[in-house]
């Protein structure tokens, strides 16, 4: 049985196995045999989603809008992540057109955007260029890395170390910080190879401090808004002093305690992983505990249907990198999150192969964006089946 090294889970390849242990391992291996029928069902949903995306590309190469290359970039990453690798070699013309559109969005300063949302667009466009696996794109990615590093907040307050929407006059938030950390994390191999022109690096300790300043954890975060309610402990808010899930006001003191919520708490776990923090770090352990206690696929905890597909996608990325297959969500109830989430997405898929959120918060009424989220989530699930 192959043994893997995953985040927080070491294995020993040097130990000798006795006959009893070999028998036990064989039994486990047989029980964990892949469910071919279920895997095929997941792949079928991926196929249908990709077919819809291919059929709904604009003739100029982009998806949804020419002003936000991040949507097109997410779609391109979805095609490149197809488990069947049908779009890798030879690359079809329509896929090349998508990449050509991304390239015309490259700015002189290294950013990859058109109008606004510079951090989001640059970060996700970098992921698409990385997925292409073409050395010709490496200089563009390196310059984009330097651009993102230059956006890191440098201040004397709780926003120091994070990244905002792209303007130096806008403060840091968890959404933009996560996207930047993800792009920097996955492109770090290019920075280390660039010996001729050393790359500036992010102040990772400052970034971690910003993440901590967004966490509902009184032991490390002493800001006045931090909740002391056990229901919020360990979770995250959008930025210091602001939670999309709102807050609770103490009638006697007037103090407002901000509520933790699902999508941004998975963003917190994922950001800590990108910052290479250990799973036994109290901050990492606390957010994972909150996520287990608030596990739900019926809604984005604390937000209802708002941002539901972003929540699914961020969940799949975070739990995949964290390296957990099953976990206990309540006493005596353990879940297989991959199978759970895959079935939820399969049941939500539209007849034409797309996905759509009836709640339009954060663009989730745009079918190309939501379908990209759906496909990407299932692709992550498929790699672990």
Overall form? globular
Q: Note the beta-strand portion.
A: under 5%
Round the Cα radius of gyration to an integer and report it: 21 Å
Helix percent reads 40-55%
Q: Ends: how far apart?
A: 15 Å
Uncertain spans, ≥5 residues at pLDDT below 50? 1-6, 8-16
Let me know the number of strands: 4
Helix/strand-derived category reads mainly alpha
* Largest sheet: number of strands, sense, barrel closure: 2 strands, antiparallel
Strand order of the largest sheet: 1-2
Please trace the helix and strand order, writing H or E for each element: HHHHHHHHHEEHHHEEHH
Structural account:
The chain is mainly alpha-helical. It has a domain at 65-201. It is 47% helix and 4% strand. The protein is built from 14 helices and four strands. The protein has helices at residues 19-31, 36-55, 69-80, 93-104, 118-132, 138-150, 174-186, 188-193, 204-212, 262-274, 282-293, 308-322, 337-348, 367-383, and strands at 247-249, 256-258, 326-330, 333-336. The strands form two sheets. The protein has a two-stranded antiparallel sheet. A two-stranded antiparallel ribbon has the order 3-4. Helix 3 (69-80) runs parallel beside helix 5, helix 10 (262-274) runs antiparallel to helix 11 and helix 10 runs parallel beside helix 12 (308-322). The longest helix is centred in the N-terminal third of the chain and has 20 residues, at 36-55. The chain is globular. The chain starts with 18 loop residues before the first helix and ends with a helix.
